[in-house]
Design a protein that fits this description.
six-stranded mixed β-sheet, 8 helices, globular
Length: 220
């Protein structure tokens, strides 16, 4: 049996119980970091202790709990920051976002790459496709590789991303989930920004926001 080329390490940090993901290329000793949340400093120590070169800091969207430690990780490793263009205003307003919750936020550096729908990102010889899934935020994205979806705050186990913050739209989020995520195979693993792992099939068959979206908000 061929040894795996790469793996995903999962962590949970901070008052918002964020899921943080570290993609590790086992051959090249390189890594990508997805959504460096509050209190995620231990990931930096693990990167150092494992002798990894951090190559990318990827934000699935621009909410403060997913971008909180962009500066720490970039200044410590030199890794570029990637985010969708539509969420750059949120990145630039990180301090103002924090004020809404009484949280002091260190401003994020500007992004080094603007992601777009359909972009192909290669990691450890795996092709990840960027799926633009607006609704939770205007520039929310998911990363899809065969059998795997890193979903940010678009889709959760039994729920969906909130849409009551600036830039959110319930109807847009439901359209994003229906058109971009539900066509994926049932056995696709879903790694969300908060909460436990799930699958597309499980959510298609049991998620109330998918089964009866009109019961939870306006689709007009």
């Amino acid at each position: 049996m061929t040894a795996p080329r790469w793996m995903i390490r999962h962590y949970e940090f901070g008052p918002f119980q964020n899921n943080v993901y570290l993609l590790e290329d086992l051959a090249r000793r390189e890594a990508w970091l997805v959504d460096p949340s509050m209190e995620s400093e231990p990931v930096l120590e693990e990167i150092r202790s494992r002798g990894l070169a951090l190559k990318v800091i990827l934000n699935t969207h621009g909410h403060l709990d997913h971008i909180y430690h962009n500066r720490l990780f970039q200044e410590s490793t030199g890794a570029p920051i990637w985010i969708h263009a539509a969420d750059v205003p949120m990145l630039e307003a990180a301090r103002q976002q924090g004020m809404m919750f009484g949280i002091d936020v260190d401003p994020s550096p500007p992004p080094d790459r603007l992601l777009a729908d359909g972009d192909c990102l290669e990691f450890a010889d795996v092709q990840f496709e960027v799926l633009h899934t607006p609704g939770h935020t205007p520039g929310g994205v998911c990363l899809h590789a065969p059998g795997l979806l890193i979903a940010g705050d678009t889709l959760f186990a039994g729920s969906i991303g909130r849409t009551d913050l600036p830039g959110g739209s319930y109807a847009t989020l439901i359209r994003s989930i229906r058109s971009r995520l539900l066509p994926l195979p049932d056995d696709t693993r879903v790694l969300s920004g908060h909460g436990p792992e799930t699958t597309i099939g499980r959510e298609r068959g049991s998620n109330p926001f998918i089964l009866q979206p009109e019961a939870y908000g306006s689709l007009g």
